[in-house]
Every structure is written in structure tokens, then in C-alpha cells.
Amino acid sequence: MTNAIEVVTEDRIPFDPYDYRIHEDPYPTYERLRAEAPIYHNVAQDFWALARHDDVRAGFRDNVRLSNSWGVSIDPASYNENAHFAMSFLALDDPKHMRMRKLVSKGFTPKRISELSTRITELTHEHWDECLQRGSFDYVHDFAGRLPMDVVSELLGVPVADRGQLRRASDLLVHREEGVFDVPPEAVTAYLELNTYYRELLADRKRNLGDDLVSALIEAEMPDESGEPTRLTDDEIIGFMILMIVAGNETTTKLLANAMYWGWRNPDQLAIPLADPARATEWTEETLRYDNSTQMLLRRVLEDVEFRGVTIPAGDRVLLLLGSANRDREVFEEPDVYRLGRDSSQTIVSFGMGTHFCLGAHLARLEANIALTEIAKTVKGFEIDIAGAHRVHSVNVRGFAELPMEVSTR
User: Fold this and answer.
1) What is the pTM of this model?
2) Which residues pair with 397 in a beta bridge?
3) Domains of the chain
């Protein structure tokens, strides 16, 4: 038995995932947690947190004692047994999770994603050309928020006219006002709006099957344990569609904006892809490590689990701090330095690990690489109006809601 480390609570290190100051810059707090409280316990808000890279990795891999059955958010409404806000695919354990993952994978194939490359490039040109013509624009509103929404919508067969409405609902679903410690009424309304929209879309697609992802999900079939054919239910398909618009849209939007922000803050590093657009992939990877969109994910403790000699009891909640793990100096050299060219793709935990590894990781990287390569090809530089920049406020997602800028074209 290892000697237990001291368990530090909020009395010594305040760490509140709802605090707007954490949303603005969580990294100094993460550094203190790694150094002084790698196994942290917030008694008042009733959660534990794992801050170091090896503990976060271990948490991801232990899908027996650490359950996804309460979803990934600390919001109480997300882990209420009767709630639907967890987006079912993220709130399942094996074998139910693996059954659904295998069925979804029959439609959400690497081949289908790779075939999107040409269309993603076309959409990138369309939206970025509009921005370049203006010269001055809001990067999130006019580009980073439009491209991922269009890509997801292309996959699902959502008409162009409806995409703005769905993006607004998606934004409301993750936004949290200061001092609100649960899913707010606006998010509930947004969820119901998305649910209704996708339920109608699904019904229409059943009558008119096509070559889109929804049609593939409707037809996806595999044998169950008894050998009988099983398919996704309507609720499972709708849950996955809502997951796509939130996880597939919101996180990639934030990744694109975080890349621009940190490139602007580090002009010596931005100069690398601007001089050689083929290296824009390094821009994507370092942003995923340095300031990932997904900062933390929840796990429910099904049976007592020990980390560093500290027992976290069954029934409690644990936050896996991805944003902290990606800055652990035991794994990354000079972790608080934004430096392109690191070989970190095998060590970052930005897309999770194990059985719940992000199904959309390849798509997110593909979108970001195409978009940032095009930007690098077309601009000499850009300036961000930092006074007009505003962050999104969410317990899980980190990034910008508004990022006004002005570009200089080549």
C-alpha cells in the first residue's frame, strides 16, 4: 500500500468549474493542483478532481470502476437518472456503449469522413473568402462557428437554411451564466428544440433514405448476443445527432479560435505555418495540447477506487482534468510554452482514451488542418481586437464566443 498523499480541498485551493475566472485562465490553478493537490476534493460541490497526466490516463482506462453513466458534465441535471441532457452515447457503459458505438461506426466510418475532405475544403474556401473580402470580421461568427456547423450538417443532411438556428441552439446548450450551477432554462429549451428538429428530420429520412449519415444510421445493423439482428432506436439516433452538433460542432469551433488566438499571442510560432502552410498540422496539434476545447470530463465512481493512496468512495464524482494533464511537466517539456513541432500526438489526452476515445477525433483534426492550412496560405498576418474578444462560459468547453480580427492578405 502506498502512503496516501494529503487530500487538499477548496479551503486551500479554490477550484470551481463554474467560476468565470477559471474560464478566463484555468492553468495557474491546474499547476497548483498538480503540485499540491493531484487528488483534489471539493467538499462543498461534492466532486473529486485528478490533475496529473498519469492519473487522468488511468481514469480514462478504468471504465469498470469509473462509469460514464452520468454523462460527462458536472451539471446536476446531466447526471439525474431521468435526465436526457447527457446525450445518450456519452452516458453509457459497456456493453450498451460498445453496442451503440459499433452500430454508429457502421455509418460514421473513416472512409465517409475522408471523403468529406473535398467538401470541407470547398466550405473553407467559401467562408474564408468572404472573411478576406471584408478584411475585418468576427472570426467565430463568420468562420470558426460556420465551418464545423456546415460539416456536421452536410453529414446529417441538414438544409443550409436551418443551420443558423441549430448553431444558436447548440451555443445555448453549453453556455452557463455566472452563479448558475446547473443546466439553465435556456439550455433546456435549446435541447428540446434540437430534439424536436432531429426527430422530424429522422422521420423524414426514414421515408426518403439517402446517402447521408442519418440514412446509414437507420440502416446500420449487427447481431446481438443471441445472434438476432439489432438496430439503433430512434432515441439513440437522435441522441447521437445532438452529440454531433455539440461535440462535433462546438469543440471544433473552439479549437479553430484557440489556434488563432495563441498564434497571435505567439508571433514567432505563427510565423512557422505562415512561411510553410504544410506545417499547419503542427498548429492544430500544439493547440490541442496547449489549450484544448474540452477541459474536463466527469466520471461516476461505481466502486471504491484508489489514486496515490487516496481512496475515492463509490457513489462520488470525479473530474478528469484534460487541460491540466496536457500541461504536466512530467510529460511535456516546457509545458506552458506554446511551441509548434512537438511530438505530442501520442501523449495528449485531448480526445480521451480507452473505450470512450472520441469517435470524431479524425474529423476534428481534418477540419482544423484544412482550415488552418488555407488561412496560412492566404494571410501575411492578422490582428485580434482583444478588447472585443469574449470567451464562452461552460463547465466543459473552453474557447471564444467572439473574436474580432483584421487580416492582411498576401
Assistant:
1) 0.92
2) 294
3) 8-409 (1.10.630.10)
